Amino acid sequence: MEHWLVQRAYQTPNAIAVETAREQLTFKSLLNLAMQYGSGLAALQEKRIGLLVDNSIEAIALIHGAWLYQIEIAMINNRLTDEEVIKQMQSIKVKTIVVSDNYQSRYMDSQFPQYFNCYVASNILVKEGTRSLAPFDVKSIASIMFTSGTTGTQKAVPQRFSNHQSSAERCLSDLGFDSETRWLTVLPIYHISGLSIVIRSVLYGFTVYLMSKFDEQQVLDAVKHKNITHMSLVPLTLKRLMDNGLTEPYQLEKILLGGAKLERDFVSLALSYQLPIYNSFGMTETCSQFLTASPDMLAINPEAVGRFDGELKIVQPNSEGHGELCVRADNVMDGYLYPEGLQNTFDEEGYFKTGDIASVDSNGYVVIHDRRKDLIISGGENIYPNEIERVAKMHAEVSDAMCVGIRDDYWGQRPILYLVGDIQIEKMYAFLSQHLAKYKLPKEIKYVQSLPYTSTGKLKRQLLNGE
């Protein structure tokens, strides 16, 4: 079997693979560029590398280049601190990191060269004498992404080509797209939601319209003038577009939403504008969404994330039918790379335990009630209270800490940190900033005399809700 990009370049060589505001690249040209980057990556003689990449044509070529030479890529969230990145890469034994040219200054100022072999992408480009491609094994690991889990312990998720392919097939069935699709991609491609679009493009031959960052006016201009048919967004970014004038669909056929719970009034307003919103639910472990609710479903139940089917089950439901959502499908990973041997990930029937509490309504639609216990979702990013508490308690003047999430009209949720200790707030923020990404920093720090615990020693977060 040939690599997906090789197949696509043979089938539709002159179709546009990637487009930005300044340039276009056909699938044939993308393959040539990917081979040049891939030859340079292969010369490093590493089976697994870390990639610190932006949303750029260079980054897409690097990703495909690695895959052409059977190199696993560990995707690095560029919003993490050096300390967080180092811990993640060391946990899966990465020795080499390749950095997008646009992140060269970050690399130069970072601690990475102390721990890894580091290369800037343009310096590994091989313009002549490309190597023969490696064999393609659909069962091999394509990408590795990290998810903290409810305990805050970093977990490395291996995503195999077969997982990605199954996810793309399910998305095609639930959402719909074809070779004429033009999919605006502003979500970071180091996240599964962004990378999945890149993969669907080569499997089905549509154009990725790539943006480096979210800007309301630039996105609106593209929707109006660039024949955009599909977009993937988090609710916050769609709200910002609606507030700035997206009150009709133009050529949009599908707006795929995920990353945060939808509010009823928001759904009602979007539907009143005839915006084709599709709410979804998925995880890093499931290679993007495995549930998708159409506009018709959302008109009936604005909280729906999709239709219940035979690949799902609700475990130990309470009197209201709320229980843990479990899934068993080909898009689901087969176990974490790190920590090794993690228990209680799958049940005895092979269903993956999502840790999310869900129910099924009278129409057969799935509703998610809690995005994993205690998880805070802020602007589409997962924030784990336990991680913030752990870092806070590293300070010598802090004896205890508790983090909870509160509603925020702009971000959806924000963390608040309660501390038992004696340290100035400014100094505490400075300390936290050394160890946590900016988006994880608490909106507010409050001091208390003590924190509530259960008889078994668990924090009772529900007693401190930030109000």
Describe the structure.
- The protein is an alpha/beta fold and 467 residues long.
- It folds into three domains: 4-136, 3-Layer(aba) Sandwich (Rossmann fold); 166-370, ANL, N-terminal domain (Rossmann fold, 3-Layer(aba) Sandwich), CATH 3.40.50.12780; 376-463, GMP Synthetase, Chain A, domain 3 (2-Layer Sandwich).
- It has 15 helices and 24 strands.
- It has helices at 4-11, 27-43, 57-68, 82-91, 104-108, 112-115, 121-124, 161-174, 192-204, 216-225, 235-243, 264-272, 295-300, 385-392, 425-435; strands spanning 16-19, 24-26, 48-52, 72-75, 96-99, 117-120, 141-147, 155-160, 182-185, 207-210, 230-233, 254-257, 277-283, 288-293, 304-307, 312-315, 323-327, 352-360, 365-370, 376-378, 381-383, 398-408, 412-421, 444-447.
- An eight-stranded mixed β-sheet has the order 2-1-10-9-11-12-13-14, with helices on both faces.
- Helix 1 packs antiparallel against helix 2 (27-43).
- It is globular, with a radius of gyration of 22 Å.
- The model has no long low-confidence stretch (mean pLDDT 92).
Tell me the structural class: alpha/beta
CATH superfamily annotation of the largest domain: ANL, N-terminal domain
Number of helices: 15
Helical content (DSSP H or I, runs of 4+): 25-40%
Q: How can the largest sheet be summarized?
A: 8 strands, mixed
Features:
467 residues, alpha/beta, Rossmann fold, 3 domains, eight-stranded mixed beta sheet, 30% helix
